[in-house]
Amino acid sequence: xxxxxxxxxxxxxxxxxxxxxxxxxxxxxxxxxxxxxxxxxxxxxxxxxxxxxxxxxxxxxxxxxxxxxxxxxxxxxxxxxxxxxxxxxxxxxxxxxxxxxxxxxxxxxxxxxxxxxxxxxxxxxxxxxxxxxxxxxxxxxxxxxxxxxxxxxxxxxxxxxxxxxxxxxxxxxxxxxxxxxxxxxxxxxxxxxxxxxxxxxxxxxxxxxxxxxxxxxxxxxxxxxxxxxxxxxxxxxxxxxxxxxxxxxxxxxxxxxxxxxxxxxxxxxxxxxxxxxxxxxxxxxxxxxxxxxxxxxxxxxxxx
Length: 304
Known about the structure:
The protein has helices at 16-27, 42-50, 62-69, 89-105, 127-139, 185-196, 199-202, 216-227, 238-243, 245-255, 265-271, 278-283, 287-293, and strands at 8-10, 32-36, 53-56, 74-77, 110-114, 145-151, 153-154, 170-172, 179-183, 206-209, 212-215, 233-235. By secondary structure, it is of the alpha/beta class.
């Protein structure tokens, strides 16, 4: 095992993935740096109190990134995707490549990039997946030990408004007998921390990461048990898909097997034995989110 001892710079640390990675690294006793536009933000302050070193900067300021990388042993790179409405696909590509290039320039020894499970060798026709494909391809041209992880759909995403829980039902991309893989955000942090702990083993590898595999009918069973009342499951209706091109394209990718995920969960559990199943997540970290989702009305909106 390669136990690097230098600091690790974590991007996106005030968000979901980066925050999970930063916390997991701190819990493992690693030296953590974060880069944020607002060092006074509550999430940044919490990480500072936990022991992280906070740098002020952003993707539009390469000098700030370069400064935060000086002397860093490793970097975790993640960028916001365009469906969130904050950036464009072009910005995501430019920023993902910039982080990788600066990691090489500053002598970083290990780069871990978080991509997506729908990303592969061929374009999907959906910008926020294909942007990650281009970043992956760029990283593979660079002279740096790099690992690319591809998280599957977040368990937390299932609690968003618009899937029907507030109406006593649940709708998603699969037919009742189709399956997809899912991962709890905190487990992304645990798995990435394990990757950083063994650079020689994981350098040059690209792989999906997940904690559970569920069919549509499993949601009906698990949500009904958690709510103590029937929560029927059905795929998005044809009317919904006809009215929402984004959902329709994702549903088509599920039918093609592209969105389903291909993580080797036995291997991942050998690496991190306490990965959360969806049932365990729903009874623990996701319990409050599920209770809120049963009451939260609203239109579907993307958050991944």
